[in-house]
Structure formats: C-alpha cells, structure tokens
Write a structure and sequence with these properties.
Blueprint (H helix, E strand, L loop, with lengths): L1 H10 L5 H30 L3 H11 L5 H8 L4 H8 L3 H7 L4 H19 L5 H7 L1 H17 L3 H5 L12 H5 L4 H7 L4 H16 L3 H18 L6 H27 L4 H4 L12 H9 L3 H7 L6 H14 L3 H21 L5 H24 L6 H7 L2
Helix pairs in contact: 3-21, 6-7, 7-8, 7-21, 8-14, 9-14, 12-13, 13-14, 14-15, 15-20, 17-18, 18-19, 19-20, 20-21
C-alpha cells in the first residue's frame, strides 16, 4: 500500500510524500486563515460599537414612554409640565437654568455632544459635522428674531448654549441688523456663506435665502464626511444622511414654489449632488411651476406616495407644513428601519437620536400648547409625531 501511495505521489510530480504533505499543510493554513477572516471581520466591524451602544442603550431606556407622555399632555398648565419633567435628572439640571423650551433643546444638544465623544473613530468626523447644527441653528434663530423685532432677552431664550460660536453669541445678540450679524461672524466660515446669500435676502426681503445657504453648507459638509463608507454601518449612515439631503432639497423647493420663486431663485441653495434625487431630477423640480407640479414630477421615486397623500391638505390650507411633515416622517422611518437592521453597529445610535429628536419635538409641542388656555388635549395628541 505504501508503494502504491508513493507511486501516486510520484505521478503528481512530487519526489516524495514529504513535499506533498507540506503543500497540503500550507493549503490548510491558507483556507484556515480565510475562514478566520470571514468569521472575524464582522466582529472587528462591530467591536468599536460595543461601548458606545451600551451607553446609548442606557440612554434609550430613559426615553419617555407613551404613558408618561400622556401624563404630561394631561397636565393642567405649563407649571405642571415643568414640574413633571423636573422628576427626570437629565432634564432637571437644565430646567433649573433655562426656560423650558431652551432646556429641552439644550438637553438634546448635550446628547449630540456626548455621542460625538464616544462614537467609533470611523464615524467621529460625521458626528463632529452634526454638532455644527447648533451653531447654524443659533445663527438662524438670531436672524429670525432680528426680523421679528424680538428683544435681546427674548432672543437669548432661543439660543442653545452649545457649538463653536458660544463666545460670539453676545456680539451677535447685540447686532442691530442682518448685515451686522454677518459682520459679527467675520473670521468664521458662516460669514462667507451668509455674505453670498445677502443680495438674495435684500432683493426678496425673505430670510429663506439666508437659512437655505446655511442648511446647504451643513448638508454638503455632512455628505462629504460620510462619502467614503467602508462597512455596513458607514454605508447605512451614508444612506441615512443621503435621505436627509433629499428631504432638505425637497423642502426648500416646496417652500420656494409656495412663495412663487423660480429656478434661478432656488438653485443656489440646493445640494446638487443629491442622494436618490439626482441633479437632473432636481433641475426638473426647480423648473416646475407649482407645488402640485413638483409632487407629480416625483412619480417613480419613494417620495411620490407620501407627498401625494399630504397634497390634499396643502391644497386645502395653502401651507406646505403637511408636505414637510410627511418628508420628516420619511426620515424617522428610515432611522427606525436602520436601528433594527444593524443592531450591533450604527443602528442603536441612529435609533436613539431619532427617538430623542422625536421626544424633544413632542415635548415642545406640548409646551407651546399649554401656553394657550383651554387648548384641547385631543388636539395636542394630533400634533405629536
């Protein structure tokens, strides 16, 4: 038998059995290495998320339940709402310092900052860009307050004390005009962004060009930060951010069409490198004559159905709010799907942010409703998301 094996080995081109055994051992090592890589690689992708997801799940457990939200809705007035939220340590520390709405926004901003500190390094640049939303929000609040003629104290209550512009806020609050606000931002990237949009504001008398230019800058930065996905989590995050870009573009176009603006008025504020809605389709939408034409031009996209369902309410009221609400719900549903689809990667983080944004929005709706005497609780529930 040994002679037979030796003969087979010789016929295979090996002088003896030892080189064959060596080759088989090498092949075994290579196959083993491949199997290990196949098994280990997914674990390496999810390992960096283990700690942040544990932190996030702990915070998710503190999200208000439907029962708690109902109890807040049934409060008799704003004082009762405030006292109820004082029972939650994460809210209490801000409620003691700020008016209720500002406390809610500050708590949300704090969560964004915490996540930026703990997320894996692969997605940290994306979360650093997300923090810019508070600078942009503060600038937009100051601009809107200036247009509305609010006092410095009233404007201060709109400001969230987070972001890189904290040291400039007092100077911006003291500005007497939109131009002074832009001058006060000299030395920051936002001065250039707003300066480019200033002629359009002066021409139309609307703050939309200023707000849209800030939103465009933010979304372009966000897309750039997420532009090189390398694994399931980063690909999912890129998709989620891309949907937000599409929704932002559509919201701008819908608002602009409701105001009767044309292509040349809209185009400077659109993120041309959209996600599912590419540049050529955006051009068609910007050239549409009416809000209804914009919606009909979206046939064949995933946005068509949700906007068609909301179109009758727009036709009835003349407000694009129902259309924007439908788009916002699309983003929330995407986040919910992502949180379930990738439970050991980016999913819990996106899911938490989605729930926290939703909680903050609903609490602000309740807060504003409780300022009006006799506002029906049933109506409040209809306004929640």
């Amino acid at each position: 038998m040994a002679d037979g094996i030796a003969s087979i080995v010789t016929q295979m081109g090996f002088p003896s059995i030892d080189p064959l055994l060596g080759l088989l051992a090498l092949v075994g090592l290579i196959v083993g290495a491949i199997v290990i890589v196949v098994i280990i690689r997914p674990l390496l992708d999810i390992f960096p998320y283990a700690y942040p997801n544990a932190r996030v799940r702990a915070r998710t457990g503190k999200i208000l339940t439907e029962k708690q939200l109902t109890e807040i809705i049934e409060s008799n007035d704003l004082t009762e709402v405030t006292n109820y939220l004082r029972g939650f340590p994460e809210y209490a520390k801000y409620i003691e310092k700020y008016p209720l709405e500002k406390a809610l926004d500050t708590h949300l901003a704090d969560n964004y900052e915490t996540l930026t500190q703990i997320v894996p390094k692969e997605i940290k640049p994306i979360f650093k860009v997300l923090l810019q939303k508070w600078d942009i929000r503060n600038i937009k609040s100051i601009i809107a307050a200036k247009e509305a003629g609010l006092s410095t104290e009233e404007t201060t209550n709109l400001i969230v004390p987070f972001g890189e512009l904290k040291d400039l806020l007092d100077k911006l609050l003291d500005a007497k005009s939109i131009t002074e606000i832009i001058n006060g931002l000299e030395g920051t990237v936002y001065a250039h962004v707003l300066d480019d949009a200033l002629p359009a504001y002066q021409k139309t008398g609307m703050v939309l060009p200023l707000e849209a230019s800030l939103d465009k800058y933010f979304l372009e930065n966000l897309l750039t930060a997420a532009s090189n996905p390398s694994d399931e989590s980063t690909r999912a995050l890129h998709s989620y951010i891309g949907t937000q870009v599409d929704v932002a573009n559509l919201s701008i176009i819908l608002r602009a069409k409701a105001e009767g603006l044309k292509y040349d008025d809209i185009q400077p504020y659109i993120v041309s490198d959209g996600y599912q809605i590419r540049e050529w389709k955006l051009k068609d939408l910007m050239e549409a004559e009416t809000v209804g034409n914009v919606v009909s031009s979206l046939d064949g996209t995933e946005y068509a159905t949700i906007l068609n369902d909301a179109l009758p309410e727009y036709t009835k009221t003349g407000s694009v709010a129902p259309l924007e609400a439908a788009l916002d719900e699309k983003v929330r549903q995407n986040a919910k799907t992502l949180s379930v689809k990738i439970p050991f990667g980016i999913g819990p983080i996106v899911g938490f942010l989605n729930k926290k944004e939703k909680e903050t929005r609903n609490l602000k709706v309740i807060t504003r409703a409780k300022r009006e005497i006799g506002f029906p609780n049933s109506k409040i529930k209809e306004l929640l998301v």
